[in-house]
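Example protein as discussed:

>
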Amino acid sequence: MSTPDQPHNPYQAPESDVFDSNGKGYEIAGRGTRLGAALIDGVIIMAIIFIPAIIILGGWAAYMEKTQSGGLLLNLIMGLAGFVTYVVVNGVFLAANGQTIGKKLLGIKIVRTDGSPADFQRIIFRRLAPIQVAGMIPFIGWIVSLVDGLLIFRESNQCLHDTIADTIVIVA
């Protein structure tokens, strides 16, 4: 850039004003937004799966009794039903643009860590399934689920399932 005191230098490096918040061209979704999307998705799945199950089994107390009193098979069935329902309800959105209903409503989406789109198989079989399966293991499942959620407090805002699948959640 030349000034009145200095003549124009044709060999000077070009200058430009470039702003990129993280050097990769996208903004990482906030923890609160991710929590809100997860809550929305959870309410939808609960309404579809657990409310009818509770009604069929004879109320909340009966449901809790059956799941707590050696109802391992019932827990596995409910876990599988929840997984299948999640995929059915959100599958089209996940395949199209890496969003669940909750993520779509809150303007965030799942992508690979390099910013490229995350394919449906990666989201389902590397991101969702490992934590879902580990969460159904008696006695340690809740620990895996807890660790998964708490890891969002890392600098990268990635949960365990994000790390396993090499994904991040960004502002859409």
Notes: The mean pLDDT is 85. Strands lie at 108-112, 167-171.
